[in-house]
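Annotators were shown the component list below and the corresponding predicted structure, then asked to write short factual statements about the assembly.
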Amino acid sequence: MNTSVNIAGVCFKNPVTTASGTFGSGKEYSEFFDLGRLGAVTVKGVATTEWKGNNCPRIAETYGGMLNSVGLQNPGVDYFIKNDIPFLRKYDTKIIVNICGHTVSEYCEVTERLSDEDIDLFELNISCPNVSAGGITFGTDAKMAETVVSEVKKYAKKPLIVKLTPNVTDITEIARAVVSGGADAVSLINTLKGMKIDINTRKAFLANKFGGLSGPAVKPVALRMVYEVNKAVDVPIIGMGGISNTEDALEFIMAGATMISVGTANFANPYATVEIVDGIKEYMEKNNIKDLSEIRGIIE
Amino acid sequence: MKKFIFAEVVEIKHMIEDIYDMYVYAPEIAKNAKPGQFAEIYTGLGEAILPRPISFCEIIKEKGLIRFCFRVVGKGTKHFSEMKKGDKLRLLGPLGNGFEIPDAPQKSIVIGGGIGIPPLLELCKHLKGEVHVFLGTREEPILVEDFEKTGAIVHVCTENGCTGYHGYAITLVDELNIPADMIYSCGPKIMLKIVSDWAKKKNIRAQVSMEERMACGIGVCCGCAIKIQKKGEDDWHSLKVCKDGPVFWNDEVIW
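Structure shown to annotators:
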């Protein structure tokens, strides 16, 4: 039985990774299990300098999910290189570094700084709904998306995954654009832009008014988009959006995902990732599947 | 390695209004817990997926018990309030830093507001020296006898004047003007800010237990950020209530 998968020449021992921003750089979860059991750790977005994030409240629970407007709070690339890479390298897992920025040059700068570091892949975040400049503004316009990807690609000495937003009319159009800009893989979906109102204070619940919806509530939408993008482009897909258990993960693989990311479920169950790793193996054994390629994208 | 604890509900009763009093058997947590720390209680509900951070009201190490005194505010706490004796809850803890308690006796002022009162009970059991506790509630006070049992001098303050001092706790603190070496406080943010301003005016340092909406409770999601400028730093940083707090020094918080 082979649970390993390959994206742009990088081999992962299993198809399970973490959704950026829900796993930090792994330190906190390393207190629950061996990070080496994961195919990869996808770290929280890294910017050129410290980003302090948005005002609170940043979190609102919703039916079967949650809204966040954290705003990519992170200590910056220098801190990441000094502290997080050496920490993660102690574990037998791949490192996917999520890159965020306000401008094309910021994305390029972080990518360049990390290109000679000991990491495995980049994930370009052009899809965060919670920052005013950059982020999603690049991810909702096909031309801008293609431009930023092709610029970042010039500095990226590791394979480049581009993370897509669901907040568009046609996600396949953006997927095609980033692939034509040089993306080696795509990951989807980022959060869906949403809102909650406190009827007692008669104000928006989140300080930032809007936030990104994640969790089980978004899964059917995410799954549909993975399916559509798989039909539209030839690069590998990292599927995510509400994946909480093995069944969810297998649905994404059958829709066409090569890898899957566990996000919000980490908050509800810190063991969600490793339970899915075990669950996929069990499913493969039970159904006599030798390699995940046998079921990947099996839905016509 | 951190582990979930499946804690049995030993006793649960309705206190007043929408506040519940619950004892759970969790010796692994009780063994290491400190006043001011909290546990994440997992809901197990599909519609309300996030765990609920609830501070320890009492830590009864010798019996392996943790006491939670919580208010029903949403689906999660409603679910906990419907627990029966013998039911099990999934817990993670102890989490957070807790209060700093000096070994030497000191004069302490403890100020609690609303559902910020319970975490101060365990604190009062540990404070040495003269302790004045101010319990502020809108209506009926809570845990008055429990605080009296710790040996503290208890001042009850109600906003509607149904009992005790008619007004805010901090107003009475100011009126009585009791000298102190340290202030400890937990309650609504607006109250903590007023406590902090008063403490600064009187040149007394205050430890404030803060609250923010959080998702993970373990320092990952950055949901519960608070602006903190530590002594010697030239700018503030976003720290996490769940991991760097919930207790902060009042003069380091950017209110």
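Statements collected:
1. The interface with chain B takes residues 21-24, 28-29, 31-33, 44, 50, 52-53, 56-61, 63-66, 68, 70, 73, 215-216, 264, 266-270 of chain A (CB under 8 Å).
2. The mean pLDDT of chain A is 96.
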